[in-house]
Amino acid sequence: MNRVIEDDALMARTAQGEEAAFRLLVLRWEKDVLAFLIHMLGSREEAEDLTQETLVKVYRQAPRYRPEGKFKSWLFRVAGNLARSRLRRRKILRWVDFDSKSHDQASSDPGPQRVLEANETAGAVREAIAALPERQRQALLLHRFQGLKYHEIAEAMDTTLPGVESLIQRALAGLRSELAGKVELS
Amino acid sequence: MKHIEPDIARRLAGQLEPEQERRFDAHVAECPDCARLVAETRSLWDALGDASAVRDAQQVSSVWGAVQERTTGREGEWFFGASHWVRSVLAVGTVAAGLVLSVLLPGGGPGPESAGAAELESIWLEESAWTTAAGEGGLETLWLDAGLESEADSEEER
Fold it and tell me: How far does the CA of residue A28 sit from the closest CA of chain B (Å)?
């Protein structure tokens, strides 16, 4: 029979310096965070790096953590914020370094579609996900892959329920139009 | 068609309330345009599932070592970063203090805190086994096995 210790209880014990509690949290969530970040960033190496960052941040913020919402929403808020600032930094760096050399590198960048794509359809879908605007992508990933409910996504993304509704609706519409003709959708 | 569009994703994720779901399905059954949109979105929904990076993530080894080094592992830095003779004096002193306390204090054994840590350790091992098995055999099989196992458990309990 499986015993369950709630995430909030583990956070409280982590805040008291109990390494085993923190290790259990890491084990429980690292793969979900990594999968989310792979889709957000389109690079497994970067996603692994930010998964570490996210979990380190969780540890450091444990003493200030208040179990007011769902731990999962809070965790993905941390991961999402880190991903978005990484994407912003990436854009700035590309803009600053924009010369023929960096342009060639950017063109030969493996890109999300080549990250472990299993087949053509999955590759096309991943490419389409990666092409979505950041916030639409984040909302859709949290809903489809992490199973978060709309109010939990609103919590994770610091927005309202209608805001989440609109983001997901636009994301799905964007994917439908992007994939039309590439993937059979009915 | 616009009126059901915001609910499609929630319907596909099974997150509508029963009454909302009933109304949604009743409308889709009568409206060919909405039925087409739902069918198209359902295919997209499935395609998204197939493109998920969850399986990829399962194949990546745990980041615990690196995270530990940057968090809890750092707590020992003051000790390991100290010079050799300081560490030696501290180590000898700690052992001596332990011996003195074991003689002076009656009873012994692990206190409630260490019992908690042992419990966490065993849960960690359980969850590790689950994660490893999920990576090897697929989550579906694992959930199925777990269901059968818990049924067997309740049979035994009866």
Answer: 8
